[in-house]
């Protein structure tokens, strides 16, 4: 048996891979050389999860990796029709980001409720201005996306006393279907987008949906930028259709310094960092090693993406 | 039986008092006229909880209110030796602020963990700078103060997965005594001050105690300004003995525009608002009416302050 070739599309150092020394031939590539190297690889590790290069470089036919793993929860940056049609297995980093993102969402919800951004502004002005804030216990949230991240968000908000509804593509116990979304949005204090970016979720937060929300509602996107029609959100904030929003993900990342989003009233902009807590790269590396060892042994892999739906189907 | 006189030291409108119409003669006073009016009052309602005027105005002997209620959790602003020695009953607003303050503390802890103040700074600079943040689950907190507010804080942090120790004056199941404080401070990620201001807590957070804390620790004060030696905290932040702090209460309130605290690195300054959520005045008014009806009927009052200790003894 020949030593398999692991091709790594990377930008940053990759910890923990030394555990596979001698069992795999590791080759590193950048985006520019990806296409020419893909045919010779048995496994592709998309460590540079911000890259969309796989979509352009994936071979239409002929030799190709049998397995692609991405160090991210979302797989929208690599799925293309050719990859979806092939028998190549795609896995993701399911599980690593759940709790960090849930905490990040809780941080934003509480910051909005307690008017923390305004407090920091007033502090810069050395201005003592008492305001009343809101209690989050008893308020209502809708979390759009019922995968592990959405469920972790719902769990954390529920622990804070927020009455939280979860919506997903497939209604099931504890998860509302898409046809209930507008009704839930209309009475939510907090709307959290944590869905995978797929054909059916692309642009789902548009002018109509922001129009349905309460003027006191806040919107938070920790999913993918493409879930939101950014112009529609900007307009909704300017017209005060909703009270505020926080975006951690954007249609184009990094967000251009010229973007009007940076100083939109009521909008908190953060640089796609919600899931990235100290040690995350280490955890991602360890997770890949674990999956590799299963693959090497011919065992079934966890976290297998349904390439038609664009995510790992859940429970 | 004559109609009792209720003297209200107020600054803001007082909702719900209409419920007592016809059963009590309500007189309003400001700080300047408090001393002359106190002897004729049966009950004093300290609605202006920021006022320290009761301490100076309390009659040494002779006629005086039989009951004093303050629309606050802390009673440090009204207890004086003469009031403490008298048979006048003092009650407080125990219960109203517990959950709002607990949420406020959670907001600050999460904001620090997720580096939210820095995110807002970078947003103003239109600067996309990804950072790793911290997971709060699994970190350690010490909450100093084991009354209802401290317990609510501990409950909320525990719900977020934070390993939380509670300390108080009297050790009991679930509450560590003062002699364990330094040991707990030395390994805490979050130190929360939520104790009443009394002789034994005054200035307890001094240079030595900040020196005991970890360089990665954050300190939050939602109790009373006098718990903290402000110069010592400033020095601890400048020397990076601790990573950050948030003060909602100060030795002098409002904080002077000249105070060096406003732009101390790593310090979040807020205007004594942690417990004040929409509807709070209404709740305080309703709570007083409820207590008044018990008093009127000769029933025992809840929330009775131990005037020697300076707080309502707990469970």
UniProtKB/TrEMBL annotation, chains A, B:
<dbReference type="Pfam" id="PF00389">
    <property type="entry name" value="2-Hacid_dh"/>
</dbReference>
<dbReference type="InterPro" id="IPR006139">
    <property type="entry name" value="D-isomer_2_OHA_DH_cat_dom"/>
</dbReference>
<dbReference type="InterPro" id="IPR036291">
    <property type="entry name" value="NAD(P)-bd_dom_sf"/>
</dbReference>
<dbReference type="InterPro" id="IPR006140">
    <property type="entry name" value="D-isomer_DH_NAD-bd"/>
</dbReference>
<protein>
    <submittedName>
        <fullName>Hydroxyacid dehydrogenase</fullName>
    </submittedName>
</protein>
<comment type="similarity">
    <text>Belongs to the D-isomer specific 2-hydroxyacid dehydrogenase family.</text>
</comment>
<feature type="domain" description="D-isomer specific 2-hydroxyacid dehydrogenase catalytic">
    <location>
        <begin position="28"/>
        <end position="305"/>
    </location>
</feature>
<dbReference type="GO" id="GO:0051287">
    <property type="term" value="F:NAD binding"/>
</dbReference>
<keyword id="KW-0520">NAD</keyword>
<dbReference type="GO" id="GO:0016616">
    <property type="term" value="F:oxidoreductase activity, acting on the CH-OH group of donors, NAD or NADP as acceptor"/>
</dbReference>
<dbReference type="Pfam" id="PF02826">
    <property type="entry name" value="2-Hacid_dh_C"/>
</dbReference>
<feature type="domain" description="D-isomer specific 2-hydroxyacid dehydrogenase NAD-binding">
    <location>
        <begin position="107"/>
        <end position="274"/>
    </location>
</feature>
<keyword id="KW-0560">Oxidoreductase</keyword>
């Amino acid at each position: 048996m020949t030593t398999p070739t692991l091709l790594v599309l990377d930008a940053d150092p990759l910890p923990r891979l030394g555990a596979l020394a001698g069992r795999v031939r590791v080759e590193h590539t950048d985006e520019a050389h990806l296409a020419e190297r893909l045919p010779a690889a048995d496994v592709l590790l998309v460590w540079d999860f911000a890259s969309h290069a796989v979509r352009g470089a994936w071979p239409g036919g002929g030799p190709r990796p049998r397995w692609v793993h991405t160090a991210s929860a979302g797989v929208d940056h690599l799925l293309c029709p050719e990859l979806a049609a092939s028998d190549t297995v795609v896995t993701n980093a399911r599980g690593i980001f759940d709790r960090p993102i849930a905490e990040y969402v809780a941080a934003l919800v509480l910051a909005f409720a307690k008017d923390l951004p305004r407090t920091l502004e007033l502090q810069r002005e050395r201005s003592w201005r008492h305001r009343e804030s809101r209690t989050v216990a008893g308020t209502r949230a809708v979390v759009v996306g019922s995968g592990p991240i959405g469920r972790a968000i719902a769990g954390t908000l529920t622990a804070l006393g927020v009455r939280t509804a979860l919506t997903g593509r497939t209604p099931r116990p504890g998860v509302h279907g898409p046809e209930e979304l507008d009704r839930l949005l209309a009475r939510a204090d907090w709307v959290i987008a944590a869905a995978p970016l797929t054909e059916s979720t692309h642009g789902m937060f548009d002018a109509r949906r922001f129009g349905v929300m309460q003027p006191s509602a806040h919107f938070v996107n920790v999913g993918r930028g493409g879930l939101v029609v950014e112009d529609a959100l900007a307009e909704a904030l300017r017209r005060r259709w909703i009270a505020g929003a926080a975006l951690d993900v954007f249609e184009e990342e990094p967000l251009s310094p010229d973007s009007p989003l940076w100083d939109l009233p009521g909008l908190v902009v953060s640089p796609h960092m919600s899931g990235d807590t100290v040690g995350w790269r280490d955890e991602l590396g360890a997770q890949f090693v674990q999956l590799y060892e299963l693959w090497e042994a011919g065992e079934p892999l966890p976290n297998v993406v349904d390439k038609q739906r664009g995510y790992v189907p859940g429970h």
